[in-house]
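Hypothesis: this fold can be encoded by more than one sequence.
Test: take the C-alpha cells below, design a sequence, compare later.
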C-alpha cells in the first residue's frame, strides 16, 4: 500500500539528483520520479544554484515537469513556469560593511549572484580547480566591481575560501550566514534565509503541510531542509554530519539512492 502521508518531495540537485561524476540523472531515477508524480506527489527542486544555471543541466532534468523550484538556497521560489513568487535578497546594510572589506583585503575569488547576472571579484587557482572538478576550465562569470551589490539586488555570495574562514567572512557581514556544501566555497545568504524557509514558502503556496513533506540532500546546505521536512533523507554519499540530521540514509546518488528511498517509504512500487 502506498504511503498517503507524503504529498511533496524536495530534491537537492548536485550529488543528490545529479551525479557529481557523470553530471546526469539516471533513467531509473527519472522513471521513478514520473511514478511518484503519477501517484499525486508534487516534486520540487531545492538547490543552492542560481536559477540561470538550470539551463546548464542536461535535457533529462530540464524536460522533467517539476512542480516548482527553490533556488539560491531558499532565497528565490519559482513555480513550474520558473517565474518567481517569493524572493529574498541580501540586506544592503550587510553589504555596505562587507564590500569595503573585500575590496581592501580579499585575495580570494568571490562570486556575487543576482537573478540574471553573476560576476567575480577575481579569478584564482582555487576557482580553476573547482571548475576543473566539474568538467569546466573556462571562467564562467566576468570580473566586476562588488560595489555593484550596493545598488543591484544580490541573492547569494560564494567566496572561494576554506571552511575555517567562514566565521571571519560573516563577521564582516552582520545579517548574513554561511550555508556550505563543498570544501571549495561557501554559499553566503541572509541569516534568516535557507532551504527550510524556501520549502515553507512553497508548501504554503500549494496548501501542503510540513508533516506531508520529504526532502533529499547530501550537502551541508541541505541540513535545514532535512530537519524541516517530516522525513529527511540523506544520500549515501553525504558526509557524517549531514547524515546525523537525517531520518533515513539511502544509497549513494550513483546507486540510484532516490529510487531506494522512494520504494522504502512506499511512495512508488
Amino acid at each position: 500500500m502506498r504511503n498517503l502521508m507524503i504529498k511533496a518531495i524536495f530534491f537537492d540537485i548536485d550529488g543528490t539528483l545529479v551525479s557529481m561524476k557523470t553530471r546526469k540523472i539516471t533513467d531509473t531515477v527519472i522513471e521513478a520520479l514520473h511514478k511518484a508524480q503519477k501517484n499525486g506527489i508534487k516534486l520540487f527542486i531545492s538547490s543552492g544554484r542560481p536559477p540561470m544555471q538550470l539551463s546548464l543541466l542536461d535535457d533529462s532534468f530540464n524536460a522533467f515537469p517539476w512542480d516548482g523550484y527553490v533556488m539560491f538556497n531558499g532565497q528565490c521560489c519559482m513555480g513550474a513556469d520558473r517565474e518567481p513568487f517569493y524572493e529574498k535578497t541580501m540586506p544592503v546594510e550587510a553589504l555596505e560593511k562587507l564590500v569595503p572589506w573585500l575590496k581592501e583585503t580579499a585575495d580570494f575569488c568571490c562570486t556575487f549572484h543576482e537573478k540574471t547576472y553573476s560576476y567575480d571579484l577575481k579569478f584564482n587557482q582555487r576557482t580553476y580547480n573547482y571548475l576543473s572538478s566539474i568538467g569546466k576550465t573556462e571562467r564562467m562569470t566576468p570580473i566586476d566591481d562588488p560595489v555593484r551589490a550596493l545598488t543591484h539586488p544580490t541573492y547569494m555570495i560564494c567566496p572561494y575560501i576554506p571552511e575555517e574562514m567562514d566565521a571571519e567572512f560573516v563577521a564582516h557581514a552582520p545579517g548574513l550566514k554561511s550555508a556550505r556544501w563543498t570544501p571549495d566555497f561557501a554559499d553566503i545568504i541572509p541569516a534568516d534565509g535557507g532551504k527550510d524557509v524556501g520549502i515553507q514558502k512553497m508548501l504554503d503556496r500549494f496548501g501542503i503541510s510540513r508533516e506531508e513533506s520529504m526532502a533529499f540532500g547530501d550537502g551541508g546546505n541541505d541540513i535545514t531542509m532535512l530537519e524541516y521536512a517530516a522525513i529527511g533523507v540523506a544520500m549515501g554519499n553525504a558526509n557524517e554530519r549531514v547524515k546525523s540530521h537525517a531520518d533515513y540514509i539511502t544509497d549513494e546518488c550513483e546507486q540510484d539512492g532516490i529510487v531506494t528511498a522512494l520504494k522504502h517509504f512506499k511512495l512508488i512500487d
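The CA atoms of residues 96 and 150 lie 7 Å apart. The mean pLDDT is 93.
Hypothesis status: open.
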